[in-house]
Every structure is written in C-alpha cells, then in structure tokens.
Specification:
The protein contains twelve helices and 26 strands. The chain is α+β, with helices and mostly antiparallel strands. Strands 6, 7, 8, 13, 14, 16, 17 and 22 form an eight-stranded mixed β-sheet that branches. It has a five-stranded antiparallel β-sheet with strand order 4-3-2-1-5. Strands 9-26-25-20-21 form a five-stranded mixed β-sheet, with no helix packed on it. The longest helix has 15 residues, at about 90-105. It is globular. The termini are far apart. Manganese (II) ion (MN) binds near residues 212, 357 and 358.
Length: about 425
Amino acid sequence: MTEADSTATQANPSVVLSWLDSANAEACEFPLANLPYGVFSPAGERPRCGVAIGDAVLDCQALASIGLLGQLDASVFAKPTWNAFMAEGTNAWQALRARLTELLGADSVNRARIEPHLYDRRAVELHLPIRVAEYTDFYAGRHHATNVGTMFRGAENALPPNWLHMPIGYNGRASSVVVSGTSVRRPWGQLKSPDQPLPAFMPSRRFDLELEMGAIVGKASERPVTVDEADAMIFGYVLLNDWSARDIQAWEYQPLGPFQAKATATTISPWIVTSAALAPFRVPTPAREVELLPHLRDTSPMLYDIDLEVGLAPSAQASTTITRTNYRELYYSAAQQLVQHASSGCPMRIGDLLGSGTISGPARHQRGSLLELSWGGKEPLTLDSGEQRSFLEDGDTLTLHGRAQGNIEGRKVVIGFGECAGTLLPALTDPFGG
Ligand code: MN
C-alpha cells in the first residue's frame, strides 16, 4: 500500500481492528481482515454457516435472523454448506464481507447485539464448508512435476510435452473429500513390483501426502470462460491434502491417469479464505519460457503469496515440520486451471473444487510430498524424534498450515487458513469383511 493510500483510509473505519480483542493479537490467523467462512455446530445443535473471528465463530444465521445482514435471508445460512450463499452471486459476496467488516470492526455500534452469537471456536465441531459438486485435481507445480518426472522418466524427459502449454489434471471424486480432523484408512489396492510377474491385492506400502491448495468455484458456467471471468468465479481457497498411494498409482496410471491411488481421501481445511481477503497478497505466476496460447495468458497477478508448511507427527509424538514452501511456486493460477477446465464447454458448477497440484519449491526442504522428500524412498527423512520416513506409517498425523502475511493499514496482518489435519489408520485386516 502506498503512503497516499494509507493516509486516505485513515478517515474510514478500520478494516484491521476489531472490538473482539483476540482478533487483534499479532499472530492471530483470523483477524478482521480475514473473515473466513465455515460450517460449525455447537454441542448438540445442527450445523450452520459461520465466520471465524479471533478465537470465536460468529453465527451468520443468527445475525441474519435479527436483521443485521440486510436483505440476505437467514435460511441461506441455516444450511450446512455455503453453496446457497455462493449462488447469491458476487454482489452478495462483496456485500456480506463489507457488512461483517463493519459489524465486527472496532467502531461497530452493534457489539451488544452480536456478542450473544459468538461461540468459542475450540468448543464447536467444524464440518465440510461446502457440498463439493465435483472435484478435479491439477498438476500445476513445475518443481513437483519435474521431480516426479525425473524419478520416473529421467531428467531429460521430466516434463511431459504438453506441460508448459496448459495446466493438466484429472477428474477426481467429490465423494472422497473430507474435512480436517477426519481419520484416513490406509487403502488396499492392486500392486505390482517390477520384479514380480503378477500383481497382488494388498495394503499400500507407499502411502503419501500431497501439499496443495483447493480453489472453490462459486459461480457456474455453461461455456468456455476467460482468465478474468475464471478469476472472478473463484469464491475462495482452502488447504488440501491429496492423499496418494504411490504404489497403486505406479501400476494403474497408464494410460488414463490416477484412479484408485487418489480415491481414498482428500482432506480440506474447514475455513474458506475468500479471494477478497487474499487480494492484498496477489503475485504473478513465474516467468515462462514458452508463451501460452492467448486464452490461457495471465492478465494480472492471480497467484498468491501464501506460506505453506506440513508437520508430520508419529503416533503420540511431537510434530516435525517436513516441508516449507509457498503457493506462489505454482506455474498456473487457479484461474488458468479453471479456463482450461471449461475450455471444451465443460459446465462448471457452484461448489466445484479444484486441487492445485502438489506445491514444491526448488530446494529439498520445500518439497510437498514424501515421494519427493525421500526421493522415491532412496533418501529417507529423519524426524526430530530420530525416526525415519520414506512414506507414511500407521498412526502418523499430517497437519498442513497456510498463512499470507503482510502489512495492511500499517499493521502486520496474518491471513491464516487454520489446520488441515488427518491421521492415518492401519489398513483393515479384511477389506471385504463386514
Ligand atoms: Mn494431487
């Protein structure tokens, strides 16, 4: 922000300071400038829409029912997903954010009416924030694609010939998407070692994570869309762990791509950080050596500067940070992914979830999967406890974090995503048993 900008905003109500003290703490992930949307339920009550502020959740249905959210009907927020609100359109998205900023801002005249509708965030249950219409996962990280390609095809053929020309992806399963905190069961699958003549059906031995971000489509389309239209269709972002069985994938992926390797579970964080909240952190995509076709070209900065990290905690042990990277390492923005997705006329729906692809940086400690961190199992990682990991062990808990950090109105602000966590349970003894 320029000096002129910050002078000009001084007369206006703050977009940074809240009357809720916990929202003003320096390290708080949910300050007034964030206002992420989730679905919560207090003990024994039904799930409904809420917004995170400081260490609390504010009940949007209750706010609407006492007339504090203007024309928006409380029934929109009574549902256990944000899909109905997304369908209200981009003007409603802007209006709700502006209104919540005013209501929760330090100058609010409505504090006494709002306070009864705040819940301690630690005391509520969080649910999937959207009904996932469909789920598509991309492969838009160049360092990840290069690392994986080098391991499987050699450095010369690391990137597939199409890779620098378009974001590539596969259609996943919406049914596999779960919210943070849901345990994940090690899958069984068909595996074939190169030294065995026949495949066998057994539990995966190379089960892995993929550090990704998910973009949530908030507006439907029936025809191809431009990069600018696509950018405006994205309601917000979540952290995403694309659990991946590398051994199942290696045998099944030719020629139609991942299938059961990616179908066990995909975990997302419970809070949707809106595109509006992330706007101050926009950055351009990296320099390109091959110019994209016109319909895929960047029109403005559409990636975001978001620090990402993954912690791995073996059963009953402290967590070791195994990777630190940044969302800006991606080669294609979510808007470019959406352009590609809709380019054939494929209809996009409200609630579509687009996985970014694994986000790895250039250095070893910036790799977003164990496949890369352990280089296919050849260079196991040593955790703080001294234990080693090539792939996940039963009982391991993975926790993803994401934070955009910078200055707004001269104050240090963190726009956090909360946690995206999951624990790996052992494979079933008999996967076909009762
Ligand atoms: Mn993936």
